[in-house]
Amino acid sequence: MFTPSVIHATVCFPAFRATSSRDVMRARHRITMDCSEEVQSLSDEASTPIELKKGMSIFLDILRRADKNDDGKLSFDEFKAYFSDGVLSADELKELFHAIDTHNTNNVDTDELCEYFSQHLGEYENVLAALEDLNVSILKAMDKTKKDYQEATHLEQFVTRFLLKETTSQLQSLQSSLECAMETTAEQTRQERQGPVKPEVLPIQWSGRRSNRRLQRNNSLSPNNPLLNLVNSGLYEEDNQWITQINRLQKLIDRLEKKELRLEPVEEEVLESSTKSHILIVQRQLSVLEEDVDEFRLALRQYIDCASTQTGCLHVAVQRLANESRFILYEFWEQSNMWKNHLQTNYSKTFQRGNVDFLETPEIMTTMLVPASWWVLNNN
C-alpha cells in the first residue's frame, strides 16, 4: 500500500491533465511553427525550440489551457488570467511575463515557459517527472480495467474496486497536504506584504472560435451524472428575493434614463465611530462554454455552498442570462479583508482553476462598497 512519504512526488498539480504522445507531438509541432513565424528576425538559436526534458510536458498543458484564442502562444492578458494567484500585483505579473519572454515578442510560448521554469524547479523536477509516469500508469490501469472488469470473477472485481479506492485515498491525502502547503505559503507572503493584493482581471474581447482540443480533455463528470441531474432539477435556483431586488433596480435605472433628472441636496448620514460603515459587493461575470455548462453548474454550486458558510459572507446570489451561457454572480461581504481572505481558500482557488477550462473568455470581476446601513434596512 502506498504511504504519503513514498508517493509524495506523485501528486498532480490541479492544472495538469493527462496528455497523450500524439497531443504532445501535435502541440510541439504547432508551437514550433508559431515560433518560426513570430521570431524570424531573431537568431537561429533563439528560434529553435528546446527539447522537452522528462517532466516538462506539463507546460504543454499549461499553454493549451491558458491559450484562449488558440494561436499557440500567450499574450500578457492570457498570461495574467492564468498565472494570477491573488498575491502578485499586476505590475509584478507584467515583470514576470517579460522575464519569461526572452524572444521579446510580447508573447510567451512553450519553449520560453520551459526555459524559465526549468531554472527554478529544484526538487519539483523529480515531482513533475513522476507525474508523467503516474499519468501513463493510471491511463494504462484504467484501460485494462475497462477491458477486463466485466469478465473478471467477483473476487477479482472486489480487488479492482479496493485498489481504486485506496489509490484515490492516497492521492487525495497527498493533495490535501499540497493544498495546505499552498495555503500556508500564500498566507505567509500576504503577511509579509501586510495584506493581500487584489487579483486583477481585465475584460478581454476574444474571437468566437472555440478550441476543439478542449473538448478532448478528460472530464471527471458526464452529463448523465446523477449529481448534475440534481443540480439541473432545482438545487441551483436563484434566490427570488434578491432577483426581485435586482430586477427592480434595473427597471428604476431604465426609467431614470428616460427622464430629465433634477438633483436634490444630498442628505448626509452621520455614522458612529464604532459603526461598520460599508459592506463590499462583488460582481463576477462568467461566460461559459456551452458544452461545459453542466460541469460549471456543479462547480458553481459547490463554490456557493462553501462561500455561504465563510466568515463575513452575508449573501451569494447568481443570475443566468436568458438564451446565453453567461452567469452573473453577486457576493456580499462584511469587509474587504474578509473577501480577500476568502480568495485564498482552497475552494475559491479550486473554482478559479476550474474556470480556466470552463470559461470562453476570462472572468470579469468588479467590486463596490455600499453603506452598511442599506443592508440593515433591507434585512429589517
From TrEMBL:
<feature type="domain" description="EF-hand">
    <location>
        <begin position="91"/>
        <end position="123"/>
    </location>
</feature>
<protein>
    <recommendedName>
        <fullName>N-terminal EF-hand calcium-binding protein 1</fullName>
    </recommendedName>
</protein>
<dbReference type="InterPro" id="IPR039862">
    <property type="entry name" value="NECAB1/2/3"/>
</dbReference>
<keyword id="KW-0597">Phosphoprotein</keyword>
<feature type="domain" description="ABM">
    <location>
        <begin position="280"/>
        <end position="368"/>
    </location>
</feature>
<dbReference type="Pfam" id="PF03992">
    <property type="entry name" value="ABM"/>
</dbReference>
<keyword id="KW-0677">Repeat</keyword>
<dbReference type="InterPro" id="IPR011992">
    <property type="entry name" value="EF-hand-dom_pair"/>
</dbReference>
<keyword id="KW-0175">Coiled coil</keyword>
<dbReference type="InterPro" id="IPR011008">
    <property type="entry name" value="Dimeric_a/b-barrel"/>
</dbReference>
<dbReference type="GO" id="GO:0042984">
    <property type="term" value="P:regulation of amyloid precursor protein biosynthetic process"/>
</dbReference>
<dbReference type="GO" id="GO:0005509">
    <property type="term" value="F:calcium ion binding"/>
</dbReference>
<keyword id="KW-0963">Cytoplasm</keyword>
<keyword id="KW-0106">Calcium</keyword>
<keyword id="KW-0479">Metal-binding</keyword>
<dbReference type="GO" id="GO:0005737">
    <property type="term" value="C:cytoplasm"/>
</dbReference>
<dbReference type="InterPro" id="IPR002048">
    <property type="entry name" value="EF_hand_dom"/>
</dbReference>
<feature type="coiled-coil region">
    <location>
        <begin position="239"/>
        <end position="269"/>
    </location>
</feature>
<comment type="subunit">
    <text>Interacts with STX1. May interact with CPNE6.</text>
</comment>
<feature type="domain" description="EF-hand">
    <location>
        <begin position="54"/>
        <end position="89"/>
    </location>
</feature>
<dbReference type="InterPro" id="IPR007138">
    <property type="entry name" value="ABM_dom"/>
</dbReference>
<dbReference type="InterPro" id="IPR018247">
    <property type="entry name" value="EF_Hand_1_Ca_BS"/>
</dbReference>
<dbReference type="Pfam" id="PF13202">
    <property type="entry name" value="EF-hand_5"/>
</dbReference>
